[in-house]
Amino acid sequence: MGRKRTKSGKIRLAEVAELAGVSPITASRFFRNPEALSVAKRTRVDSAAKELGYVPNLAARALASQRTEVIGVLIPSLTNNVFSDVLRGIYDASENSRYSIQLSNTRYSILQEEKLLRLFLAQKPAGLIVTGIDQTTESRAMLDAADCPIVQIMEIGPNPVDMMIGFSHYDAARAAIAHLFAQGHRKIGFVGARMDPRVQRRLDGYVSAMKDAGLFEQRLVVTTATPTSVTLGGALFTDLLAREPGMDAVFCANDDLALGVLFECRRREIAIPEQIAIVGFNDLEFMASAVPTLTSVRTNRYEMGNTAATMLIDAIDGRRPEHPVLDLGFKVIERQSSSARRSDNRPAVSGAGAANKMVALPSGHD
Amino acid sequence: MGRKRTKSGKIRLAEVAELAGVSPITASRFFRNPEALSVAKRTRVDSAAKELGYVPNLAARALASQRTEVIGVLIPSLTNNVFSDVLRGIYDASENSRYSIQLSNTRYSILQEEKLLRLFLAQKPAGLIVTGIDQTTESRAMLDAADCPIVQIMEIGPNPVDMMIGFSHYDAARAAIAHLFAQGHRKIGFVGARMDPRVQRRLDGYVSAMKDAGLFEQRLVVTTATPTSVTLGGALFTDLLAREPGMDAVFCANDDLALGVLFECRRREIAIPEQIAIVGFNDLEFMASAVPTLTSVRTNRYEMGNTAATMLIDAIDGRRPEHPVLDLGFKVIERQSSSARRSDNRPAVSGAGAANKMVALPSGHD
DNA sequence: GTCTGTGCTGGTAGCGCTGTCAACGTTCCT
DNA sequence: AGGAACGTTGACAGCGCTACCAGCACAGAC
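ok -> structure tokens follow
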């Protein structure tokens, strides 16, 4: 005999089945596919389970069925506000499903991502959510070979592994620059940190828009691999000013940098938007509250996470979406920091969030 | 016969054992307790596993050993910056262990927490990290009965379930008020949002400090159950000003609110700190970068998460900490927003983060 | 009346791993 | 020399659940 058996009050499926007067396998089916049972047995098993307080043993289920009910999520950062919104969307969507989330942090390293992917795949996840479209060749091969649904989030691009949900960072950046052009700005600087693939594509969008207008100059671009922060925004802006004092606008690759630029302008007594306009990216909550209020490109982060998880769960359950690639678009939220240069046009300083105009643009139509 | 067997190239422990020329159980031990093997077999199993690319099946392990290698984490919010720092600490600490993190969001509801706790406990987690000390009676009973190590994080208090790591929000708030008193402020307002237990204790600390000085007035306190935001900071401050125009300082229960107050002051052309001083809570990164730089109470969020997970893993592995209750303390970081009222004393406006003075205080000694 | 199809149910045989215990070889005592 | 003590190894028997297949009852088709 192995070990001590029938340990204290442990409720197994067999106990439930016995109380309900059915075979264990029938009870098992009740939990996975109740419709397959006759109504009579269904209610019997149901009440037996409730009476005994039965909780299925997930490990045994996973072992026997050769698959888990785990959704693996690979994101590059836990600090970034952007990802916390996405994550919240994912967790919310998974909450009332039978799937649980297994989260891992790649720290913006595609090698780390590859390692984690190998780990995840070995446990046969029910589905996978991965960030972005820039995997290593090896990772890509693993994803292609994986026998579970996969959603790539944060951006859209060619050759999806499976499903994809995001927006075009390139188009979003172009829209931001187009907005600045429309307000009469010409010498527009770019400030970027971390320079992960998505920030790089925002830079690409900026460069192409500036080139299209014949206004591109390399010295208008200041970037760093350092992780983003408000303080860094001020520092990068300082560099930019030193290179090009005549600049009349700055496009910041994210809102933290934009806030840093705002504070730096305040320190230097540079008037916004009269002397320099500011546009950020993501439209975090504080942008509408700053003084002056800060223009930004709104992205649908919560919705992205939520929809990704919902699509994934649907796909796992056999309901594949009609369109595997979903463009969530973006909106340029025009605020005081980028009003037209003529100061008489500047909205009166008033309550936070006042005077927001919105320009909605699905990606791909800038 | 059951189902199709020996599915394509699936590497099991048995295969590794066979290649290494040992029994499966010996190979099993290699992965759990390598020191128990002779050096010769250890290297044989090691190279066999590497050669075959063996990855253990966690479900089988969990089923056979009757325990999982999952650490359950219950936090009240995924949005809050505070928790993303804590989480990062937890994930970092778990990364090189064999434990994986199972995260759930209680959304600041102790009923939801109870429900999730029941769910977690049913899966026999290796350990548990829970937020705060305000559980339902039922939750508390489950925690007391749980046969795994438990760490309560974010604050310290009497009657720990098991281990506890945090600091005294009460003392931290008192220290912030003491700092404002020292700068000559007397009519100090309190602005708080969400009013979860920890914010409530900060309020309690504020009230006690004010009462000790004979300065407490109910109308100096403005709170709301609404989740915190920068915009809300401005709105609450507006309320406060309407009630008590003569106020000379505001203690904000968190930094988002403080930033909102800063912007609102800017909108109203109230000079900081000459007319009103501001002190925030948590010392998020932007506080050092704002104009003026904002005083805050620094809390060790990353360290808290990291230490909690480390302690928990050590305890799971049988190395219980000497002191089960760890006070991580706090520091009042004095910046421009709360400099002494005489304006000649005000630090020159200079680079971000300049002129930080620090006052370190372990909780319990204010 | 026989045959086929459909819906529901149950028996059998594992999924891949580890707890337990026994057994072995070696060293160190007395 | 005998035996205890230790370190190392292996055989066995499951952990709790589900895949697979078979069987049964009943309905409809021929």
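Residues 1-3, 5, 12-14, 24-25, 28-29, 32, 56-57, 59-66 of chain B lie near DNA strand C (CB under 10 Å from a C1').
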